[in-house]
Amino acid sequence: MVEGHSVHRIATQHTRRLCGRSYKASSPNGRFAEGARLINGRSFSRIEAVGKNLFAFFAAAGQADVVMHVHFGMSGRWSVEDAAKAAPAKDTTRLQLEGHGIVSSLSAMTVQHGGVEMFEKKRAELGEDPIRADADAEALWERVSRSKKTIGLLLMDQGFFAGVGNIYRAEILFVASVHPNTPGKALSRAEFDRVWAASVKLMRRGYEEGSILTVDKAEALALGRPGLRRWIYNSAKCGRCNGRVASWDVAGRTCYACAACQPLDPSRAEEAEAAAPPKLFNSHCAGEGPRRGLRGRLEPSLNPPRAFLCRREPRGATRPACEAAGGGAARGAHGGRPRRRRQEGRAGEPPPGAPPPRG
Ligand SMILES: [Zn+2]
Q1: What is the distance between the alpha carbons of residues 211 and 333, in angstroms, rounded to a whole number?
Q2: In angstroms, what is the span from residue 328 Cα to ligand 1's centroid?
Q3: Distance between CA atoms of 271 and 194, rounded to whole angstroms?
Q4: CA of 70 to the centre of ligand 1 (A)
Q5: CA of 103 to the centre of ligand 1 (A)
Q6: Which domains can be identified in the chain, with CATH numbers?
Q7: First-to-last CA distance in the chain?
Q8: Confidence band (pLDDT; 50, 70, 90) for 314?
Q9: Which of 22, 54, 147, 340 is deepest in the core (most CB within 10 A)?
C-alpha cells in the first residue's frame, strides 16, 4: 500500500509536468472510457493530494470542472514519458493523456470521475493529512480524544489520519513513545501532540526524501548506527534500546511496539492481544529503491501553499532542478513545460515475483 508521502510527491511532480495544458484523453483498457471522453481536450488545471488520494481537475471555459479521483491501492503508477519513447499501453492502463510531446499513463485501483461535489464529498470523509498545510490538529484531537478505538487503529483510519500507512503507524508511535493499544480517549493531550508532531515531521520528511526515513541522522550517529533508517517496523529488535520488538495483528495488519520505549499503561489500555514473536518479511510497501516511488529529494515545500520548491539533484543528473508545488502538493500552482523524457510516478508497484503484500 502506497503511503501518503508518495501520493503527495506524484501530485507535486505532475503539477509541474502536466498541469496547464490540454491533452487527448483515452482509456486503453476501456475501464475509464466515459471519464476519458469527458476529460478529452480539457485543460488539466490542477491536481491535489489528500492522504492516499489524488484529485485531478480538468477545466473548460463556461463549464463545471471534471474531477478525476485516483487511489492507487496496493500498486499503481502514473507515468509521464517522452512520446517518442513511450511504452505501449498495458492492460492495466485506465487513462492515457497524449500531447505536447508526452504520453502520460495511469494505472490504479480506483479511477473515477465526477464533479467538484464528488471531490468535496470525498474530501469531507478524509481526516487530517499531516503533509497538508491546511491540516487541523485541533479538530483531530477533538475526535481522537472521544474515541474508544486505540491510537494504533485510529492512525490507520483514513477518516482520522489521512495518508498514514502501516510503516508510518509503527514509526510514528515509536517516535511519540506511545503504545499502539492506548485508546484515543485515554491519550493525554501531550501524547496526542507528540503523535501529531511525529506524523507531520516523519511524513513531510518522507515527502521530501522520497523514502520512509524515520531515524534522525544525529541520533543514528550517536547510537553508532549511521545506516539506521527505521526504529521498529519489520524488525525483531528496537533500533534505540535493542530490546525485543513485539508484533501482533490489528485489523489484519501487523502492528509493532517496543515494550521499553513505548510502555503500555495497563490501567487505561484496552485488552491487548498477546504479542507473538516478530514475523519478518520483505516489505515492498515503503516506496524505496530505484523502481519505487519518485526518486530524489524535494525541498520542504508545503508552507506556504503556493511555494515553489527546488529539488537538489546529484551532479550530472538530467532532471530539472525546480518543481512547483502547491498546498497539499497542488492547489492551483503550476508552471513550466512538460518534460520530454521518461518520468515516473510509481506508487508502490511490487517488483516481479514479489510475495503478496503484508504488514
Ligand atoms: Zn526500544
Answers
A1: 24
A2: 33
A3: 23
A4: 38
A5: 48
A6: 4-124+286-347 (3.20.190.10), 127-258 (1.10.8.50)
A7: 9
A8: very low
A9: 54
List, in sequence order, the alpha helices (H) in 42-188.
116-125, 137-144, 151-156, 166-176
What is the structure's pLDDT at 279?
56
Radius of gyration of the chain from Cα atoms?
21
pLDDT of residue 296: 61
Residues 6+ apart with CB under 8 A from 337: 100
Share of the chain above pLDDT 90, in %: 71
The conformational region for residue 128 under phi > 0 = left, psi -120 to 50 = alpha, else beta, is beta
The CA 108 to ligand 1 mean position distance, Å, reads: 37
CB count within 10 Å of CB 306 equals 13
Using the mean position of ligand 1's atoms as its centre, give its distance from the Cα of residue 231 in Å.
Answer: 8
Q: Which amino acid is at 19?
A: C
pLDDT given at position 319: 32
Looking at residues 169-182, what average pLDDT do you find?
Answer: 97
Rounded distance from Cα 228 to ligand 1 centre (Å): 14
Q: How far is the CA of 104 from the centre of ligand 1 (A)?
A: 45
Greater confidence (30 vs 333) lies with: 30
Instruction: For 2-18, write each residue's pLDDT tens digit.
Output: 889 999 999 999 999 99
Question: Phi/psi zone of residue 149: left (φ > 0), alpha (ψ -120 to 50 degrees), beta?
Answer: beta
Instruction: Give the DSSP H/E element, type plus range, for residue 194.
Output: helix 189-209
243-300: per-residue pLDDT in tens? Answer: 999 999 988 999 999 999 999 887 765 444 444 445 555 544 443 333 334 456 654 3
Q: Cα(241) to centroid of ligand 1, in Å?
A: 4
